[in-house]
Specification:
Elements: E1 3-6, H1 9-13, H2 24-28, E2 30-34, H3 40-43, E3 73-77, E4 82-86, E5 96-110, E6 117-129, E7 137-148, E8 153-164, E9 170-181, E10 193-199, H4 203-210
Parallel strand pairs: 1-9, 3-10
Antiparallel strand pairs: 2-3, 4-5, 5-6, 6-9, 7-8, 7-10
């Protein structure tokens, strides 16, 4: 399902005065990014802390659109790129419940003259059920945030991602979203802004991701073992 995330003009004009958390840690913890004009291989840039992809993401490109300037940077936050529910008192495949990973991200934008920037994003999610998962369905949550690049958060919206596994251990879901960003003047280009994507994770999940450890989405099945921290 496609939804529309609009950034208010007041937020865009008064970003420096917003009572929100600045995002240097978000910007420094980027996981991967996609910008129009890059090859699929370039879109799979990694932070240096992870390199375990057996196959390229199965994600269809978006239709290219005309833009008067560069598009906003679109990235996945490294700390929120994976979702791992753990039970018990130790990190082990036997204690994994539901899992998720943002496997791919593509984007494109359009704007002319002093029009707002319209950004289309497509995110590929791989989800899984571990041995401690209860039930055959799970509603994950993820968010999209628009920031003034390297500065303040302008808008952030959460989205529900309902998934039915239908008896399988894993599932793949693609989500398309549209973000509309107003511009104060025609000279404000798209690279003034940044769009971040991530799972809604707990502080413990974020710390697990930050450590460099991970479980694949098929945790608990044969051959699924955690990777140690780098």
């Amino acid at each position: 399902m496609r939804r529309l995330l609009k950034v208010s003009l007041a937020s865009a004009l008064a970003a420096a005065a917003l009572a929100v958390v600045a995002v240097p840690t978000i910007v420094n913890a980027e996981y991967q990014q996609g910008r129009p004009g890059q090859s699929p291989g370039q879109r799979e840039q990694e932070s240096g802390q992870e390199r375990e992809r057996a196959t390229p993401p199965r994600i269809a490109p978006l239709r290219r659109r005309a833009a008067a300037g560069p598009c906003p940077y679109v990235k996945v936050l490294y700390d929120a790129a994976r979702y791992v529910e753990l039970t018990g008192d130790r990190v082990a495949a036997a204690n994994v419940a539901f899992t998720g990973e943002i496997e791919g991200l593509v984007s494109d934008c359009s704007y002319q003259s002093d029009e707002p920037i319209r950004v289309e994003t497509r995110v590929l999610f791989n989800l899984g059920r571990g041995p401690m998962a209860q039930g055959d369905a799970r509603t994950y949550r993820y968010w999209i945030a628009v920031t003034e690049r390297n500065r303040a958060v302008l808008a952030k919206e959460y989205f529900d991602l309902p998934v039915r596994f239908d008896g399988a251990q894993t599932a793949t879901v693609t989500q398309d979203q549209i973000i509309v960003i107003p511009r104060a003047e025609a000279t404000t280009s798209g690279d003034h802004f940044e769009i971040l994507v991530g799972f809604d994770v707990t502080p413990e999940m974020a710390e697990f991701n930050r450590s460099g450890s991970r479980f694949r989405v098929n945790a608990g099945t044969a051959g699924a073992t955690p990777s140690p921290a780098q």
